[in-house]
Amino acid sequence: MxxxxxxxxxxxxxxxxPGTEDAQAAYPYYAQFTPEDDDRFWFYNSMHxxxxxxxxxxxxAEAAYCALGSFNTRVHVLPTTKGIDHRVINxxxxxxxxxxTDPEEIEARxxxxxxxxxxxxxxxxxxxxxxxxxxxxxIADAQALPTPSLPDLEPIETTHTGKGVAAxxxxxxxxxxxxxxxxxxxxxxxxxxLLGYGAYLTFFDFCKRAFPEISDQAISRMVAGMEAEIFKxxxxxxxxxxxxxxxxxxxxxHDEMEIEQVLGALDQLGENGREWLQExxxxxxxxxxxxxGDGFYHYHRSWNDDLSMPFAALPGYIDxxxxxxxIERPMDQxxxxxxxxxxxxxxxxxxxxxxxxxxxxxxxxxxxxxxVEGHKFYCEHxxxxxxxxxxxxxxxxxxDHGFWEAEEDVFHLTHYELESAIVDLMLAWSSGSAxxxxxxxxxxxxxxxxxxxxxxxxxxxxxxxxxxxxxxxPAIVMLWGITRxxxxxxxxxxxENENELKGFAACSGVVExxxxxxxxxxxxxxxxxxxxxxxxxxxxxxxxxxxxISAAVSDIGGSMSHMAIVAREYGLPAVVGTGAATQKIRxxxxxxxxxxxxxxxxxxxxxxxxxx
Length: 612
Known about the structure:
This is Chondramide synthase cmdD. One of its GO terms (molecular function) is transferase activity, transferring phosphorus-containing groups. By secondary structure, this protein is an alpha+beta fold. It is built from 21 helices and twelve strands. Helix 3 (59-75) packs across helix 7 (167-210).
């Protein structure tokens, strides 16, 4: 019985939701669970994939793990871990690490890692500047790809210039270039990321050995107060709020406003209105190229595609500006606290050698850490949103040729199936006959739409398989918050105290308030002033709503998860990695969040309610 208590359900025991078997089978074979997978430990990656995955959207897992594994395993050669395998069932992505346990292999990989990673650390600024240029060039290449189209007849210039290539070839050429660019982007993404975590983790391990009583949160606060591009969109919204007050157009922004009406009214208002609109354009390009999710779902549209998120934040920011309140991120406070902590702990070290090592490690962490969040703006947001919009162009073309009803239906096909549909259209155009797709895809798309709805209602186990004795993959611990202690807590299902949830102490502060359980980006609008956000995961682009909420709680995440980092940067009390907060906390329930201890208390269930 003891062994059974230490195991989550086996992958083979997880049943496909009845009626969705064909939709499940349509995912690529290499992303399906096999009997051999019962021998491994897997966990649900709700941090990156909190909602059921449309079939095309699975490319976000596929391309990301191709790149992550390449850099872990064969480029930077991390000593104790290789890549991450992924599987999908009922639209949910489960992942499992591939550890290195042989001491001789670890020793050999360590020697390789030192040669490779140290070169990056020594030349970080130069290489990072090159990285930004690579990403901007990749974005420009994607923007330059033509919109797919098919003329009734080739222009006469095709023959008179000896071009020698017909229009249908451009369909497959452009599509493959889109996929190539997307896979390449993920390689750029992971070129620096694990090294950024590695520098922090080396400092983290030193602190744990030198200061046995130090908390994870205290160490993380030593790298707070960072400048990173991912925070810039929210700063631009604040700038627009200040400009609205300065230009005297602030009365147009309120909770009941219609965005198009506001834009039209400002255009008619005169010089000040048009000046604010020009300021909006300045902010939008490039800073509104962020989506409302974490960059893994086609329907998490960018702020540029849908201005709802930034405009929803404007009334609150404007109100605070008019009251003379500070709306900036508390950078001075964060930096002062950071420097004080670094200094205080340095004084506790006995030897000059330890102090020199400490100085070197914290110095490296400060140099490299901004990349850990900054890269997201270019990769998961700007490039990924551009990529999905380019795929929409194929959705529109195939819709116009009768393959399906709506542009968005394209995302119910895998990327292999979409290529086959494109080839079908190419063949039909070239032969002058009707394509076969219009008879094939509508029924399949309808079936997959129903599957997505059914999977959204299904309960998802947080993990699968036997709990490993040791979890030493630094990314899995720091990013996802998967530790042996946490897994044991999840397995106990709150037996110790059913009114408490435990997680990582992300940002200190004690807050009592109303829990607002938000299970998808679509529900963000339900948040009201003073609510405590309870979600599977959040990310930096939700920053504009942080002015409304008083605290945050997440299912997944470790002390270096994006939610934990963002909470610290905004001074928002938070507990991450609770396992099942979205399932155990009722919407509207009163709860207490203790961000310093990493504890969430369900107050409605207590015998005696405490005063706030």
